[in-house]
Amino acid sequence: MSRLAGNSLFMVALVAPMPPPLSPNARPRLLVIDDDRKLCRLIAAYLEPLGYDVEAVHTGPEGVTRATGAVWSAVILDLMLPGLDGFEVLKQIRHTSDVPVLMLTARGDEADRIVGLEIGADDYLPKTFSTRELLARIRAVTRRTARALPKEATLADIVIGGLRVRPGSRTAVLDDAPLTLTPVEFELLLSLARAKGRVKTRDHLLEEIRDREYEVFDRSIDVHISCLRKKLGDDPKAPRFIRTVRASGYMLIDPDAD
């Protein structure tokens, strides 16, 4: 099994289509933002024969310009970049895009993973990853996004207390104030809202928000829940919306009825 390797941490950002959308028959377009040119060539050499168009830029400012100036099926983002580091690039992309982000860590550094997740990354994977797993994750997330958007456009809002979740626009408001949520945070909130009053295990949440076809042990769901709670103004010890069910998972409760 082949593996990609390089000299620095890099991320894979899985991007939901934004206007103007790609044609359904178009080849998926990938943007690589990495100053390791050899790594960029390796990624292109692996993915282009599989039907992807790959473009690479090698500095942080170039990455922001290209990532926000066109529609991409995926963006691969290195942490250590000239001009702007990967975290800052991700922050700037987040100003105009709700891009799902998969962070790949070089050293398995928990601090880097948590910072990335809190900025808006959606998941992480050790950097010495198999190309097959990288491809599977790209396919799974882009397939889930493409399938979910048309279906959700016809769904009614879900109202729980002062919280309103809008599947059609993939937005949420709390007490009439819009919430700034990452794609994974929104998917978690939507999943919990649809199951109001019922426990959702971590495994069930992971299956629903990422549509995986293979099993990976992953506790990053707890970090996303923590970030979501902060945005909801929730106190884990006295939750208004998200209750932890010990040794099981999470449950969304109605603050007006609980």
Tally of alpha and pi helices:
8
Q: What is the spatial order of strands in the main beta sheet?
A: 3-2-4-1-5-6
Based on secondary structure, the structural category is: alpha+beta
Number of strands: 13
Give the name of the CATH superfamily of the largest domain.
Answer: Response regulator
Shape: elongated
What string, H for helix and E for strand, traces the elements in order? Answer: EEHEHEHEHEHEEEEHEHHEE
The top-level CATH class of the largest domain is: Alpha Beta
Largest sheet: 6 strands, mixed
Instruction: Kindly report the average pLDDT value.
Output: 75
CATH topology category name of the largest domain: Rossmann fold
Query: What's the number of domains?
Result: 2
> What is the strand content?
15-25%
Low-confidence stretches: 5-24, 211-217
